[in-house]
Amino acid sequence: MQGWLNSPLTPKGEADAARQGEILSGLDLDGFTYLCSPSGRTVQTAGIACGRIAESVCTDMRLREIGVGDWAGRLRDELPQGTGDDPYMAQYEMAPSGEGMAVLSARCQAFLADLNGPAVLITHGITSRVIRSIVVGPHALANPSIRGGQGCVYHLKGGVQNLLT
């Protein structure tokens, strides 16, 4: 579990970011702002994906990944397993000194309330899930093919989520 720790992008992460840049360059993003998590891996993604289309990319702490407290840097397999419909997500609630989903949700809601127009957001998998569920509703996570985060570009507008490819 990485949480607020950092690591450089893998070759796959670099390829995903390049593909995100291709997708974004095909869109009309006139008037959009570009915002990303301050995490090094996210800033690196933003540089690859937005470097040719954005005049600048600003960081916002509220876009960082969920904090996993004492479990940062630990492998999921060595941690207690979560229960319920989604044991993977349940682990985030169990992490000692972790942020938890309610705090992450409040952080994302505050971020969204401060947006002043359309924006390209470069963030993390769990943070993306929370933002999408706030903007689109819980059904944004209902389709298993679009539950994940890394390497994806989502367009959210009018209560509708589209996975761009």
Automatic annotation (TrEMBL):
Highest taxon, organism lineage: Bacteria
Pfam families registered for this protein in UniProt: His_Phos_1 (PF00300)
Entry-linked Gene3D superfamilies: Phosphoglycerate mutase-like
InterPro entries registered for this protein in UniProt: His_Pase_superF_clade-1, His_PPase_superfam
Matching SUPFAM superfamilies: Phosphoglycerate mutase-like
UniProt name for this protein: Putative phosphoglycerate mutase family protein
Organism: Octadecabacter antarcticus 307
Lineage: Bacteria, Pseudomonadati, Pseudomonadota, Alphaproteobacteria, Rhodobacterales
